[in-house]
Amino acid sequence: MPELPEVETTRRGIAPHVEGREIVEVIVRSRSLRVPVPVDLESALIGARFGELARRAKYLLLPVGDRSLLWHLGMSGSLRLARVGDLPRKHDHVDVVVEGGAILRYHDPRRFGFVDWLAGDVASDPRLARLGPEPLSPDFDGARLYTLSRGRRAAIKPFIMDNAVVVGVGNIYASEALFMAGIDPRRAAGRVSRERYARLAEAIKTVLAAAITQGGTTLRDFVSGSGEPGYFAQRLNVYGRGGEPCRECGHLLRQVTLGQRASVYCPICQR
User: Fold this and answer.
1) Of the candidates 117, 144, 145, 254, which lies 20 to 30 Å from 198 by C-alpha distance?
2) Is 46 exposed, middle or buried (0-12, 13-18, 19+ CB in 10 A)?
């Protein structure tokens, strides 16, 4: 699943090619996504111009006139740039063509993503209103994690993956941040100290910032807005490496299941 760095990479990749550009054509090949494509999408977009693209958690926000599109990539979706004349592939469901010939093309084999109108604004749309802070913002820190974790018996890994606590810390980056902070992912969230939460918050920021800089993580289905895969997977320390030696101490990494997700950790480096 594309996580926050992949979505941010997509935003940065497509923004220079569509911001301020007039939309000249919209092609919807299939409306049967997780949320049906709005029936007025074509008529509302043609002749309008894109504003400055934004992101909230794993959602892309594309202002168009006095409205905004809310775009989610689902499990396997991607927004990439094509040019007029590039033939669509199977599962290319939506094309938005802007002046100059660039095409914003949505590809989604599993159809779990969607494009829809934002309901009101970011604060009032029910899909966004209850989300926690952005992990790279000043609103997120160890003090928040410590306060919200008091009394929590659930493991710390699912705790930091809860979008009400902080957005965008998916399975890959939660695993990597916990390794960097030296915290066992099985430890009860309520039994982690304030000092360790401070380290964890900084680790989350570091891991996500590095992933964004390097273009996201290479996943089978993900390509960035420019059509190139991400490269962060080359530097993963624990995710997907169960049974392999730890890069720090050499001990074999262990894999467990937490919150229905595979979790790999080092029993020596993470306590």
Assistant:
1) 254
2) middle
